[in-house]
């Protein structure tokens, strides 16, 4: 048992550990209640005077803290009883030799059995089956016969563990072997079935007893009466109460059960009147009846009334209040009224010296943990240690949960690893907190190990904890462990959520284990679980990457059958994959046939396939679909014509594209969308002269070309060095009332950075213009500034404003401004970066690389490396050009 000095040391010790651990990188993501910082004050001098490093201090402090709690936990250990249960643990049920060896070993440890000894062992036991083995062994020992008390205890153990089938089997065996027992046979059966929640069977047995002239004793009558009340068999309760009264068995237990009967029927006024009548007769002496009444008011959410009762009878001093206080604290805590419960406890402790039982402390700590009120949990743990209150397994679980929630994962792990030394058996709450904390700390392997151990101990985590661990395993690519986890869950009849399956399948796809993902998906289909839309996308894209377009095509059809709508891009990806396989035409038409068999022929279906064939550079397949659509009586819409035109252009079948465009003129008006598609498509295949001809023709026909047409032409002209034509198009764009877009402005600034040729061309063109006041003059100033030919007096903050007068800024614009500044002033570039972020623009890879490269070029390697590290921290992979500088 630890001394008070040792306990006080651990209280002081816990404070700085909480502070240190909360600031360490390994646990920075964990929750730490801010009020715990209060405890650092009492130990601050130790921290400031120590000469050791914080890590060394942390390790030694954690070890001392673990040792302190270990000593406290060991208070409940009984070496003699531990030996008994260790022997029982070696016994194999179906092995006669093993059972014989265990019997002999137990006989040496417990040569003289008594009722008290058996009750103590059963009370100490942690494992239900081990308790049952001990009960069986004790009943077979010469000179010892089980009593009503020992039978009732083992029945309560089975009932509390909710092992009703085992309990009923136990009772049936007892009925068949009645000659082995001298205890009142019928009483035990009646009590057993009553406790097992079978009051109807208990009543039948009771009836047979009475018919045979037998009767229950006081103890059995009250067990039966309580079971009837618990199962709401109120019509029989009055009969049994009369039988108890007639035999002179009425006592405080009878009164307590009757109070419970009243409040279960919501007859609380009668319950109170019944209790006051008992008090006036001087018949209530132990406080149990009042505690049941208080509990009844609380269960019916009448806390004010319950509180007044507690206060009234405490002042009268007529009833012992310890039991009442315990029930009142428990009910307040369970109702979430924790502050009231804690205030009441402090008040009664200071004024009356009241010390709750260990299980009242446990109720408070469990509720406080759920609300993350760690300061109060800490106080209660220290209060129990200082009061030398022997902890039970729930107390130890609360301590384990506290260490987890306080971010003290190292301490929690150490306590968990030492659990066999003080018989700690984590419960479901402790396992859930422990696994969640380990996952949050990134200790996924440890979390998985704890989970496996919890399953071995008979616990399976809650759905939320399972999902957290599954998500972590998928995120870290520990897919074999994830597979084992799913198999164990299914073996326990636990069906993981569809979201968990989807994450697992997606993780398998990312790991290029698409076949495994497909098998999991098949299992989901088998049990009628529908995968998410995103899961289908991941599977389809993964099969496309594996050149398995046939499987991708089946999944594409399946996802539509399951109610998901594929995008055009997904159709396009599948079709492109099919076109890369053997017999592409056969595969392509097979998918089209499957699609048409599942849907009424519609223009959108044919358009998806025309688009897919066009991107696969199979214009002949696109044309076949286009003609098939017409043969089906479906008239091609504008999108069909545009997609067919684009399919020719992507394959650089220019003559076919021109012929098709000529055919279009004969059956529809050629508007801006078609000409835009033609011009943009020609630009993408580098046919700038033909694109310019179409632009002029469109303009001559009275149709203003689209801005996109101008953008692509200007970009292509600048790339080929035809700056004069590009500048004329910009001027033309302004004359037709169109704004210069960010795209065009950025293209001009980029080429200005590369050479002075654009500015020289601009200057010559400008000299020939009569109007010098248009927006293009400001744009020319910017081109000159970026090419280094014009010195501007404004700083770059104003230059941003100048750009905004010409075209809207975007991230690309800022990146070029940064590139221009990084040629000379890196400090100004950093200021611009800050302004960019303040204005809501999200920096990208080019942003960071521009700054890093600028610092490297100016010999400021340390600052350059910091920018590269920032890229890694944000999950951006630097290019090889940048990495070679690091």
Poorly predicted ranges (pLDDT <50, ≥5 residues)? 1-55, 178-183
Strand content: under 5%
Radius of gyration: 41 Å
Distance between the termini: 58 Å
State the share of residues found in helices, binned by percent.
Answer: over 70%
- Mean of all residue-level pLDDT scores: 82
Largest sheet, strands/sense/barrel: none
Number of strands: 0
Structural features, described:
Among the domains are: 68 residues, no CATH class; 61 residues, no CATH class. It has 886 residues and is mostly helical. Helix 7 packs antiparallel against helix 8 and helix 44 crosses helix 45.
Write the layout of secondary structure elements.
Elements: H1 4-23, H2 44-49, H3 54-73, H4 79-90, H5 96-109, H6 115-124, H7 128-139, H8 148-160, H9 164-176, H10 185-195, H11 199-211, H12 218-230, H13 234-246, H14 252-264, H15 268-280, H16 288-299, H17 303-316, H18 322-334, H19 338-352, H20 358-370, H21 374-386, H22 393-405, H23 409-417, H24 428-440, H25 444-456, H26 463-475, H27 479-491, H28 498-510, H29 514-526, H30 533-545, H31 549-561, H32 568-579, H33 584-598, H34 603-615, H35 619-631, H36 638-650, H37 654-667, H38 672-684, H39 688-700, H40 707-719, H41 723-735, H42 742-754, H43 757-767, H44 775-787, H45 796-806, H46 811-821, H47 826-838, H48 845-857, H49 861-873, H50 880-883
Helix pairs in contact: 1-3, 3-23, 4-5, 4-7, 6-8, 7-8, 8-10, 9-10, 10-11, 10-12, 12-13, 12-14, 14-15, 14-16, 15-16, 16-17, 16-18, 17-18, 18-19, 18-20, 20-21, 20-22, 21-22, 22-23, 22-24, 24-25, 24-26, 26-28, 28-29, 28-30, 30-31, 30-32, 31-32, 31-33, 32-34, 34-35, 34-36, 35-36, 36-37, 36-38, ...
């Amino acid at each position: 048992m630890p001394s008070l000095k040792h306990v006080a040391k651990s209280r002081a010790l816990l404070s700085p550990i909480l502070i240190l651990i909360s600031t360490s990188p390994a646990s920075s993501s964990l929750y730490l209640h801010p009020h715990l910082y209060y405890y650092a004050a009492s130990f601050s001098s130790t921290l400031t005077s120590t000469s050791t490093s914080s890590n060394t201090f942390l390790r030694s402090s954690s070890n001392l803290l673990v040792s302190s709690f270990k000593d406290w936990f060991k208070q409940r250990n009984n070496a003699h009883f531990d030996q008994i249960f260790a022997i029982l643990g070696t016994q194999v049920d179906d092995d006669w030799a093993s059972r014989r060896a265990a019997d002999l070993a137990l006989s040496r440890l417990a040569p003289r059995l008594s009722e008290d000894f058996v009750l103590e062992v059963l009370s100490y036991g942690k494992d239900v089956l081990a308790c049952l083995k001990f009960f069986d062994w004790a009943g077979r020992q010469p000179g010892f016969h089980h009593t009503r008390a020992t039978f009732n205890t083992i029945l309560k153990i089975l009932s509390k563990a909710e092992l009703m089938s085992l309990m009923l089997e136990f009772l049936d065996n007892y009925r068949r072997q009645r000659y082995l027992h001298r205890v009142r046979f019928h009483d035990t059966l009646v009590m057993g079935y009553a406790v097992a929640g079978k009051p109807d069977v208990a009543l039948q047995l009771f009836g047979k007893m009475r018919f045979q002239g037998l009767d229950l004793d006081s103890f059995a009558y009250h067990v039966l009466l309580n079971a009837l009340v618990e199962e709401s068999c109120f019509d029989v309760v009055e009969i049994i109460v009369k039988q108890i009264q007639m035999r002179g068995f009425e006592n405080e237990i009878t009164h307590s059960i009757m109070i419970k009967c009243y409040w279960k029927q919501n007859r609380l006024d009668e319950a109170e009147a019944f209790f006051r009548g008992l008090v006036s007769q001087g018949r209530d002496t132990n406080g149990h009846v009042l505690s049941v009444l208080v509990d009844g008011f609380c269960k019916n959410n009448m806390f004010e009334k319950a509180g007044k009762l507690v206060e009234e009878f405490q002042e009268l001093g007529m009833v012992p209040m310890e039991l009442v206080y315990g029930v009142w604290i428990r009910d307040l805590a369970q109702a979430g009224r924790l502050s009231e419960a804690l205030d009441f406890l402090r008040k009664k402790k200071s004024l009356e010296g009241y010390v709750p039982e260990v299980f009242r402390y446990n109720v408070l700590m469990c509720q406080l943990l759920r609300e993350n009120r760690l300061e109060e949990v800490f106080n209660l743990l220290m209060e129990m240690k200082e009061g030398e209150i022997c902890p039970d397994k729930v107390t130890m679980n609360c301590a384990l949960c506290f260490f987890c929630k306080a971010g003290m994962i190292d301490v929690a792990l150490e306590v968990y690893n030492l659990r066999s030394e003080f018989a700690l058996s984590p419960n479901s709450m402790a396992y859930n907190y422990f696994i969640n904390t380990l996952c949050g700390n990134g200790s996924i392997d440890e979390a998985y190990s704890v989970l496996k151990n919890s399953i071995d101990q008979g616990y399976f985590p809650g759905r939320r904890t399972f999902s957290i661990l599954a998500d972590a395993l998928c995120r870290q690519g520990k897919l074999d462990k994830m597979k084992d986890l799913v198999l164990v869950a299914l073996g326990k009849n636990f069906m993981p959520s569809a979201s968990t399956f989807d994450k697992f399948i997606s993780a398998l796809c990312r790991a290029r284990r698409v076949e495994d993902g497909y098998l999991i998906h098949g299992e989901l289909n088998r049990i009628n679980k529908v995968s998410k839309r995103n899961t289908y996308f991941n599977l389809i894209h993964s099969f496309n990457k594996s050149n398995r377009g046939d499987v991708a095509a089946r999944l594409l059809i399946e996802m539509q059958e399951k109610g998901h709508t594929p995008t055009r891009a997904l159709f396009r990806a599948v079709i492109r994959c099919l076109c890369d396989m053997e017999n592409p035409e056969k595969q392509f038409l097979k998918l089209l046939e499957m699609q048409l068999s599942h849907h009424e022929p519609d223009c959108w279906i044919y358009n998806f396939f025309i688009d897919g064939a066009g991107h696969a550079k199979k214009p002949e397949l696109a044309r076949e679909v286009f003609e098939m659509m017409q043969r089906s009586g479906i008239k091609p819409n504008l999108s069909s014509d545009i997609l067919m035109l684009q399919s020719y252009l992507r394959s650089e079948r220019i003559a076919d594209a021109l012929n098709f465009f000529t055919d279009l003129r004969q059956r529809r008006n050629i508007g801006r969308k078609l000409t835009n598609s033609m011009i943009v498509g020609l630009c993408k295949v580098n046919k700038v002269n033909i694109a310019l001809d179409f632009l002029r023709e469109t303009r001559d026909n009275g149709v203003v070309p689209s801005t996109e047409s101008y953008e692509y032409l200007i970009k292509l002209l600048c790339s080929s060095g035809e700056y004069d034509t590009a500048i004329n198009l910009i001027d033309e764009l302004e004359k037709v009332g169109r704004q210069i877009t960010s795209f065009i402005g950025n293209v001009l600034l980029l080429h200005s950075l590369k050479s002075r040729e654009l500015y020289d061309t601009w200057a010559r063109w400008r000299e020939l213009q009569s109007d010098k006041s248009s927006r293009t003059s400001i744009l020319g100033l910017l081109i000159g500034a970026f090419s280094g030919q014009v010195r501007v007096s404004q700083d770059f903050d104003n230059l941003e404003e100048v750009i905004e007068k010409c075209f809207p800024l975007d991230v690309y614009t800022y990146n070029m401004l940064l590139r221009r500044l990084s040629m000379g002033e890196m400090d100004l570039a950093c200021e611009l970066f800050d302004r960019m972020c303040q204005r809501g623009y999200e920096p990208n890879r080019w942003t960071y690389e521009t700054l890093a490269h600028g610092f490297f070029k100016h010999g400021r390697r340390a600052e350059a490396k910091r920018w590269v590290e920032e890229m890694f921290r944000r999950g951006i992979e630097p290019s090889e050009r940048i990495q070679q500088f690091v």
